[in-house]
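Example (one chain per record):
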Amino acid sequence: MALMVFILIAGGIIYLVVDTTTKREFKKKQLQEAYQRALASGNKGHASLAGRAYYSYLRKGIPTLADEATILHDIAAMQ
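Predicted structure:
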């Protein structure tokens, strides 16, 4: 009986971890694609916002200075 309870709890935890990871990866991919589309559009303002949203999501908060430099580099490369 105790083994069955342990297996159910462990299975539930594993499910939650996998589900959360899958959702996080999906959101990351959406933001990355939105950033790439914004860069391709030629709209620098939109690209800047999309880049900040993407890197903020990656850093779980605020983009780093290196992220800001990457965004500026990407925008400068838009032509």
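Caption: The mean pLDDT is 91.
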